[in-house]
Amino acid sequence: VMLEGIVELEAAIHRASKIDGFGVAVPSDDHFTLMRQMLPVLSMAKLISEELSADSVPTLDKAIWNVMKLRTRVINHLQIHQENQNGIKDWLMAVRDQLDKRFPQCGAVYTPFAVGHLLNPYQLGKLLNKLGKEGEDLFKETVNPLVDADPAAPVHRQQSRDAIAKIQAAEKTWEDIPDEDVEERAMREELNKTKVEETKSASVPPLQEEIRTYLLERPEKPVVILDWWKERQAKYPLLSEAARAVYCQPATSASSERAFSQAGLVMTDRRQRLNTKTLEKLCFVNQNFDLLEPCL
Q: pTM score, two decimals?
C-alpha cells in the first residue's frame, strides 16, 4: 500500500524536491522504475495475504492454489525482465527462492494444505500430482494417511488378509487334480484370482470407499465448501467430519495475532486486576459479537 502511494505521488514528490529547504531524500528515476516493476508481484502478494488471513471462511483449500499463482507471476516477470534493469531480476529471483524455500512444491508437501486442497470438491486435489517431483505421488501421500487415521481401517485390512489367506489355503485341495488337466487348473486359478479381488474390494476401509465415491462427484462451479459438506453429511459421514476438522484451521496466524492484539486492548493499565477467565470471556464476546447480538 505504501509503495503504491509513493508511485502515485511521483510527480508531486519531484515537484516538492525542487523547493528550497526540502530536506527529504527523494528516490531517483531508477528507483521509481524499480518500484513500478515490483508492484504487480507485491499487489498479488497483498491480495493473497488478505484472502488467506480471513477468519470467517475456510482458507486452507486456497493455500496451494494461491502460492502457485504467485510463483507463476514471479516466473512470468522474470522472463520479461531478463536484462536485470535496476536490479529487478535479482529481486524477482530472491522472491522466487524464498517462495521455494518456505513453500516447497507450492506448499503441497504440507499436510494441512494438501488435505485442504483435496477436500475442496471443486479442486479434488488435482494440483497435487502436477506439483509432485518425478516418481512422487503426492496425491497418494495425502490420501493414504487420511485413510490410515480412520480407526476402522486396520480392522478391515486384517479381515481382508484373513479372507485372502483362507482362499489361498484352499489351493492345497487342488493337489488331486492331475497336471495334465490344464483346463481344470486354469479354471480354478481364474476363480481364485476373482475371489481374491472381490475380497479386497469388499474389505476396503469405509473412509477409502467414501474418497473413491467423492472423487467422482465434482460440481460444475466453485461451491461454498462448508455448506457443500453439510448437505452431504449423510453420504460422506467420515469425510465430512474430516472436512470440518481441517477447515476450522486457519492457513495463517493472522487470526491468532488479531486475537492477541484485541486482548492487549482489553487488558489495559487500568484493568490489571482482571483475572484470566474474565479476560477470556471478554475477548470471546468481542470476537463473536455478531453471533451473540441477536441473543442479547
A: 0.74
